[in-house]
Predict the structure.
Amino acid sequence: MERDVVVTGIGLVTALGETADSTWAGLLDERSGAGPITRFDPDEANVRANVACEIGTDPAADTSDDRIDDRTMGRYTQFAVAAAAEALEDAGFDPVDPAWTPERAGTSIGSGLAGLSEIEAAAGSRPSPSFLVRALTNLAAGHVSMAVGAKGPNRAPGTACSAGTHAIAAAADDIRRGRADVVIAGGTEASISPLGVGSFDSMRALSTRAADPAAASRPFDADRDGLVLAEGCGIVILESRDHARERDATPYAAVTGAGRSADAHHVTRPAESGDGLRRCIERALKDAGRDPAAVDHVNAHATSTPIGDAREAEALNTVFSETDVPPTTSVKGHLGHALGAAGAIEAAIVAQTIAEGTIPPTMNYETSDSDCDLPVVAEARAMDVDVAVSTSAGFGGTNGALVFEQP
């Protein structure tokens, strides 16, 4: 018998703030996390797009948490340990509490580029003894498991910009099938470096609105010209409903369905008509036992790229062809695109959307585009959301979707 899965804790590190509350407040206040790049000199690196969504603090230096150590942790791992600590506290967990059973607690944390900045810094010199443990993709999940003594299932999807969504989907499956009672799940990324930004810049995927960084990321807007790269982390505490009830925890939302698919089309361009993402959303709804008409809200992947946003709009219009597309938001106008962390950050925001009864706006959506014929939410909207879908898509044609519901 499959078990119900609920979200009982949220932790966020974003360009709007290093907590879930500060990020949520920034979304509703329509603040942008974008600004000129400060982590390196764009001119020296020959990068044209001098805009990114950076984290304003250094976790290792700006926290009293002695579990965060820059000698053994890359920047992306430090974000994960910080966000996991917030999420566990939010869920009411204490690793020394009897409710915390290490063998029944897992970790599932994805990343697209993981320790890219650590790899770049080490290039051309003899690596330090700690290089690998600061750079490897699985060390965010590994360090979080060690920090809290989680000895259950442990994984680290590396599926590009779907990694965080895939990590949460797999974690929910662990709980549904009884492999764990609690899983610390999400995604993390720290790719604001010459190689990280320069790679996307060379592909001409980045917005070039350096003169007005706050207006650069424009999901679904007719004047969008590319994405804004971001760093950050999103962690959710997933728990079986029975386990949460036993300790009187109050869930934000339930995770009732997940879908995964491949475009099998092109290494960077989405499939024609958004076919891969369309199949992914349909699978997630089928997994949840929900018809499209039941969905109240869509948190879209929409990265502010001309083709990507248009293909996603086609996918959504096909999925909801027999009913109206529900109110749709992309928070990347505020937060930029955090690659493998994006889906996890957005999953946390969807859980908070359900709990708060407020849909956050799509920042910088000013001019509608006939290629993106969607009911885009341009201003924060108070609304009861019973069922919501969150989407992700990544290079290689990898897609992910999650269905969240009232708990």
Notes: The chain has two domains: 5-246, 256-405. The domain at 5-246 is CATH 3.40.47.10 (Peroxisomal Thiolase; Chain A, domain 1). The chain has a mean pLDDT of 95.
